[in-house]
Structures are given as structure tokens and as C-alpha cells.
Amino acid sequence: MSNSPQDQFLSSAEAARLLGVHAASLKRWSDQGRIDCVRTPGGHRRFLRADVEQFSKQSVERVPKQPVESGFTKRLLKVLVAGDQPKAEAVLLDHWGETGRWERVGDDVGVMLEEIGASWLKGGITTAEEHIASETLLRSLARIRTMIPNRPRAPLCALATAPGDEHTLALGLCELVLAEHDWQPLWLGRFSPVEMLLDIIQRPEVDMLALSASAFSSTPSTLRGLLCRLGPVAIACQTQLVLGGSGAWPHGVFGSLRMRSYADFGVFLRELKAEGAAK
């Protein structure tokens, strides 16, 4: 029998740490048949290291999107381009009522935003229309957020873009997912310098820092350098770092967790709540 490191089997926690994701995400991908695993006699999953490394290189960057009901995206896009915020809020709330969770709405809106970007590149939508749609969506999300109450002493998650990144729509959707899972979002938004993020991480009332980076405004070296500054402080202060957006975040450094979808983020928050209730 080979003793090569490539032949080593990893637990779910070890494999997830290697990929830089939460174990819940890895288990979901395994259930979907996207990555192979074997079961121990006790029913625990074991992943071959070589499979995990191959998955990291080829698959983890492209998580398959769930089909979106086209009527939702068409209705939402129409009112967003028109700048009709009240109707945009109504469309979003109706879709939330149909899907049951803001994380599902978030993933569907993400698909729509990709469609807007593709349409803009092809000349199907003007720059002005794209700007109006984005701003109307952001204002709609912010207003809906005020409708979700938080209990006193709810855990606190700070939300910021990576320094230099101006795209905050992902944070607006993330804010709704957090609020729905009984977390208190702390909006930092864009243009937060590293020194401010370091200060936020060290505050005892802050349990998590969620950072978003787009593929167009953040280089891999910049994001790695950012985590090299934030990571050691986050570990020392026991503040969880969550990384989102389409940016090229490094995998599994300083205990950070890479979220590929709002559904993954929702699973992570529910597991945190279950772990807290079990203590």
C-alpha cells in the first residue's frame, strides 16, 4: 500500500480547511457528487487528498448555479432599470416569500447581475441604465434591511469591501442573510482602510468580519497581502474572517472561510447557531 501524501485520506474538517471553505459546503458538494468521498464504518466522510487538491484547482472556482425562475429576473431588471425602488422592493419581497430565505434570493439576484454585466458588454443596456439599476437595487436592499429586527446582544458581523473595491451590492445581500439568521450587521461599506479593518477586528463586540472583493478591482497578490495583515490579528482576537465576491482570494489562510454562494453562507450561520445552542 502506498504511503504517498497524495494517498492520504482527510476528514471533512481537514479537507474543508485545505479548500478554505466551511465543512458544510464540502458536505453539500459531496452530496451533489461534485467530489468523491468514502465512508468510515461509523459513517464519517473521508476525502482523498489528491481529489481535494484537484477539486481546488479545477472546480471550486465555478460553483454551479441553481436555475432561476426567469420571470423574477425579468421583473426585477425592468423595475431596477426604471429606477422604481418601491416596485423593486415588492419584487424582492415576493421572491423571498416564494423561496423562504434571503440567501436564495441573493444567489438568484447574483445571476441577474451577471446577466446585466453581459448585456452591458454587448451594448444591450447603457452605462446609465446599469448605474441606475445598481443604485436602485442597493437602496432597495438597505430599506428591506430595516424591516428585519435584531434581538438585543445579537452577534455582530462587520461588512466591508476589500480596500480599493467599490462594489457593495454583495454586502447589501449579505446584510439581509445575516439579519435573517439573527446576526447584527455592522456596515462599513467601501473605502475602509486596512487600519480601520484591524481596529474593527480587535473590538471585543465584533465576532466576524465579512470581506467582499470583485474580480475586476482586486489582484490575487493584493488580496493575499490583505489577509497577511488581517489574519494573525483575527486569530489572536478570535474574530472569524469570511471572504466573498468573485475576487481571487487565497484558500484556507489564517482560518479564513471562502463563501462561494449565499446558500453556503446561510448553512454556515445555521451551523454556528446550532453549535452555540449545543454549548
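The record above closes out task 2.4. Task 2.5 opens with a second protein, given below.
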Amino acid sequence: MPDSSRFRAMRLVATLGMIPILLAVSPLTGYGIGYLLDRWLHTGQVLRLVFLFLGFVAGVREMIRLIRRAQRDFDEL
């Protein structure tokens, strides 16, 4: 296996390994932002839920982008 092919394979594994972390951190970050805004604006739990949802959507969107990049890298192997 040539060095460039090995490098691409390792990059592919690293890219796909980021997905579980991304899916966990994005909603938690959104929830944290919503929590801080709820405390600052005294809005109950409304913004927590809104930003939790937005964090989940952002995480899924980024996951799709990473999968597409990994697919391109896999096709180049």
C-alpha cells in the first residue's frame, strides 16, 4: 500500500470517527446556549428546546457533509 493511499485511509477513518462526537456535542452545545439565554432573558425552558433542536439539526447537517467527504475520499482509494 503506497504512503499516499495509507494517508487517505487514515484520514477516512478519522473523518468517520468524528461523527459520534459531533452528534453528541452539537445538541449539548445548543442546549447550553439555550440554557444561558433562558437564564438571561427569563424565558423558562423555551430557548433551551429551540437551541437543542437547532444543535441537533446542525449536527445532522455536518454529519451528512462528513459522510459525503468520506465517500469522495473512499472513491479515490
